[in-house]
Amino acid sequence: MRPKKSLSQNFLIDEKILNLIVDSGNIKSDDIILEIGPGTGNLTEKIIKKNPSKLIVIEKDKELSKRLKDKFDENLIVINDDILNCFNKFRFDRPIKVFGNLPYNISTKILTSFIKIDNLSKFFFQFLFVFQKEVADRIVANYNTKQYGRLSILSSWKMNTHKLFDISPKCFFPKPKVWSSLVLFDPKDKIEIINKSENLERITNIFFNQKRKMIKKPMKQLFDNYIDISNQLGIDLKLRPQNLTVKKYIEICRCYEDLS
């Protein structure tokens, strides 16, 4: 099977890494598992051996979907579709676990689409996703660091994030030019409430489009009375975007929503 560059296909082939990923998910017999982008089914096979109650895989590639059906027969449900079209389909009687060696070209879009789901912890128990290492480092970054940004804020708003380990390019076929990392996401039962996740997305985009500049400019862009808002929130306008905590961005978002 020749991987397709158009679908950003890099198949995980290293047995040790595959076992580590599955073991990190601590799969139990009553678990419902969703796997995104199973490809040739190397991780799928490891998941099946853990005997979950149900396994659903979403594979965009039509040929690979057929191969998965032929290979695993009745052990799984195969959905031949783009994951970005499927977010309304994952509603079960209990939270599910999600695995994915995500295509590099849409990995952040997949993540943010999950984050936008209301009552996330009601439907999802855990996510285990493989990203480019550079993206993973941005996801788990704390404030006051260079990696901290939009992905850090959106992810930690709704989930606890943990980078578990890095993965060498030689563990894939074909070999990517960069290292990858496995990130564990645990949805939070209680989150800071805002009206629309899109508002937090917009605000973080505005702030981090010029991350080396002082935050006076994005605050001025968002609010006519930006000085009053800054004083109200206790924000120093000389700070940089990476110096504000997730909670501060939530507070800014609430002010923005109140005035919209």
Describe this entry's structure for a reader.
The protein folds into two domains: 5-187, Vaccinia Virus protein VP39 (Rossmann fold, 3-Layer(aba) Sandwich), CATH 3.40.50.150; 197-259, rRNA adenine dimethylase, C-terminal domain (Helicase, Ruva Protein, domain 3), CATH 1.10.8. It is 38% helix and 19% strand. The chain contains eleven helices and nine strands. The strands form two sheets. It has a seven-stranded mixed β-sheet. β2, α2 (42-48) and β3 form a beta-alpha-beta unit. It is elongated, with a radius of gyration of 20 Å. The protein starts with 10 loop residues before the first strand and ends with a helix.
Give the averaged pLDDT, no decimals: 93
Strand proportion, as a percent range, falls in 15-25%
- Strand tally is 9
Q: Gyration radius, to the nearest Å?
A: 20 Å
CATH architectural group of the largest domain: 3-Layer(aba) Sandwich
Order of helices and strands: EHEHEHEEHHEHHEEEHHHH
Distance between the termini: 52 Å
CATH class of the largest domain: Alpha Beta
How many structural domains are formed by the residues? 2
How many helices? 11
Helix-strand makeup class: alpha/beta
The biggest sheet amounts to: 7 strands, mixed
CATH superfamily of the largest domain: Vaccinia Virus protein VP39
Examine the coordinates and then state which fold CATH places here, giving the name of the CATH topology of the largest domain: Rossmann fold
Contiguous runs where pLDDT drops below 50 for at least 5 residues: none
Strand order of the largest sheet: 4-3-2-5-6-9-7
Instruction: Classify the helix fraction into a percent range.
Output: 25-40%
Shape descriptor:
elongated
